Each structure stands twice: as C-alpha cells, then as structure tokens.
C-alpha cells in the first residue's frame, strides 16, 4: 500500500451524473486526509461535462508518478465506445463502463491504487447490451475471484450488511442457508475489525419472517437456519444478538446494543438506512482483497448535465476509502 494513498474513482455510466459528481471532487475532499485521487473516464466526456456545469478547475491527463497539482483534477483516460449525451443511455457504452471497473480493479490488485470508489452504473442498459450484470458487488467478486463478498451500506450512524443482495423476494428464503449466513458473518466480523478498527464487534442479526418467526408460527427459518449459526459462532466468541424482529431492530434502544446490523434481504435493511442517510450514505464491499466503496444512489439521468447533482455521497465514499487504506 502506498504511503500516501492514491484512490481510483470510476466515473460510471457516462449518460448519468457520475462524470459531473466526479468533477466536484476537486472541491477538496482529500486535502486534510493526505491522499491523492485519479478519476477514470473519457477525457472528452469529462471536458464536455465540465463545460456544461461551469467547472472552474483544470483537467489533466494522469500518468503513473504524476504529482498532484492544485486546481487540477487528474483523469485516467479510458475512451468511450460511442459519443455520449447527458440523460441518453446507449448500450454500446456498456463495455466502456466495465472497462473503467476493470482498470480500477487491476490497479488495486497490483498496488498502483490504494482503493477504488465507484460512481453509479445503470444495470439495465448493461444487460440490454447482452452482458449479464447483477451489480457492482457481484461483478467485483467475479473479477477478483472472491467466492463470497458482503454488501454493507453505512450512513446516518448506521452500518447495515446484507445476507442476500439483488434477488427477487421469492428467491430469498432458498438462498439463506446455514453455510451462507455463517460465511457472511465471518466476513462481516473480520472486516469490521480490519477495515473499521472495531476491536470486538457487536452484530445485530435480523430474522427473516415477521416477528422473527414468532416461535415458528410465522415461519421456521429463524429456528432451523439462523439461530443454529448464531449459537455456533457465539461459542467461538463472536458477539451476536438475534435473530431479531426486523420491525423493531432499527429502534434507538436496539441499535445502541450493536455496532452493525445484518439484514436477511435488501429492502429489509436498506429502507431504514436510506431513510436515515439519503444523499450521504455509501456502499462498501466487504471480503474483497481490495478496498472498494461507492455512492448509494443511482445514475439520476434526469439530472445529468444540469450541475444540480449532489456529490455528498461520493465525498463520503472517497473519505472512507482513504481512511481504510490508511489503516491497512
């Protein structure tokens, strides 16, 4: 890891707000954190979007070893497949979006970059291009040959990890096994220690069913799948509380008992988190051999090119990536 972290920021879907919120990074999120940034994107796209939003800095093409220059934003040029217009998706640029990710992953794996931060991509248009794509989390796991990763969002004083990610609700029960929950908890516990410096994490674990199954009356997943895993891991010394009813788990008295929440499915956990932190929450992928954080919002096509997109989530994602890199 570099003595002064160098963080790669992928600019995401070119028709969305990613390029312009990346331009706003020159506003100074890294000055007090002793780190440098490089934005990955097409230099012509970034210049056009800079003009559209009256960007006041200078864009400079980045190369390894280039020293930071005040008033400049460094761009690692990755060419678009076809020209892009704000708000207008084009499947032909899906390969470009994935090239941004691949370049950042490669740089993190070789030590060229200390961490990567991702601006939003559009899953639908990538799939329209004939490229199966579930999301950043799953793609990063595949590209780094990581058998299991954990998606965690932070913000509003909360850390919420997910036992399952982007699945139809009807597929969630069959995806929850003792093995999958155990692996998720081991990864979550390890990275809370390693990346967040929480020495002895306390994890609140949700049940799957209403009222955590109500003793089996509303479902038996808590009794047959979740609770046996928690008992085994508690015997090893992990501090796990649950399975808990999800409808009361996010109340202040319950949250005070833990450092992080493990939800069983996407909306069970993220509805509460996004209510508490919308615009300032971030996504962290745990279990990877590299550091990756991301914004917690989408491409906002309707705002692209307007200069009105809020860069707050990106700022927080960069700051947390730098902090993790410095700890390691």
UniProtKB/TrEMBL annotation:
Cofactors, names only: Zn(2+); Mg(2+); Co(2+)
Species name: Candidatus Propionivibrio aalborgensis
Chief location bin: cytoplasm
Cofactor note: Binds 1 divalent metal cation per subunit. Can use ions such as Zn(2+), Mg(2+) or Co(2+).
Residue stretches in coiled coil: none
Binding site for a divalent metal cation: 166, 211, 266
Keyword terms, alphabetized: Cobalt, Cytoplasm, Magnesium, Metal-binding, NAD, NADP, Oxidoreductase, Pyridoxine biosynthesis, Zinc
Protein name stated in the entry: 4-hydroxythreonine-4-phosphate dehydrogenase
GO molecular function: 4-hydroxythreonine-4-phosphate dehydrogenase activity; cobalt ion binding; magnesium ion binding; NAD binding; zinc ion binding
Gene3D superfamilies per the UniProt record, alphabetical: Isopropylmalate Dehydrogenase
Any one annotated GO CC term: cytoplasm
Subunit structure: Homodimer.
């Amino acid at each position: 890891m570099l003595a002064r972290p160098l963080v790669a920021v992928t600019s995401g879907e070119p028709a969305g707000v990613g390029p312009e919120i990346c331009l706003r990074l020159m506003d100074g999120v890294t000055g007090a954190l002793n780190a440098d940034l490089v934005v990955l994107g097409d230099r012509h796209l970034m210049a056009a979007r800079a003009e559209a939003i009256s960007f006041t800095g200078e864009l400079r093409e980045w190369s390894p070893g280039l020293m930071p220059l005040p008033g400049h934003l460094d761009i690692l040029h990755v060419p678009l497949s076809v020209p892009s217009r704000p708000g207008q998706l084009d499947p032909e640029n899906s390969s470009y979006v994935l090239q941004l990710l691949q370049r950042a992953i490669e740089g993190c794996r070789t030590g060229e970059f200390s961490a990567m931060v991702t601006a939003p991509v559009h899953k639908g248009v990538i799939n329209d291009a004939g490229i199966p794509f579930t999301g950043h989390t799953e793609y990063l796991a595949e590209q780094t040959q990581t058998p299991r990763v954990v998606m965690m969002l932070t913000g509003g004083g909360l850390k919420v990890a997910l036992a399952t990610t982007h699945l139809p609700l009807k597929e969630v029960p069959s995806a929850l096994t003792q093995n999958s929950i155990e692996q998720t908890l081991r990864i979550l516990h390890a990275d809370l220690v390693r990346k967040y410096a929480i020495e002895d994490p306390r994890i609140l674990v949700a049940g799957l069913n209403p009222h955590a199954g109500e003793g089996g009356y509303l479902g038996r997943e808590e009794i047959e799948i979740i609770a046996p895993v928690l008992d085994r891991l508690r015997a090893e010394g992990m501090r796990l509380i649950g399975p808990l009813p999800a409808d009361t788990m996010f109340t202040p008295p319950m949250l005070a008992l833990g450092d992080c929440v493990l939800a069983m499915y996407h909306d069970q956990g993220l509805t509460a988190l996004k209510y508490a932190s919308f615009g300032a929450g971030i996504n962290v992928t745990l279990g990877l051999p590299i550091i990756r954080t991301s914004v917690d919002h989408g491409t906002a096509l309707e705002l692209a090119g307007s200069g009105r997109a809020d860069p707050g989530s990106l700022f927080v994602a960069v700051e947390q990536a730098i902090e993790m890199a410095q700890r390691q």
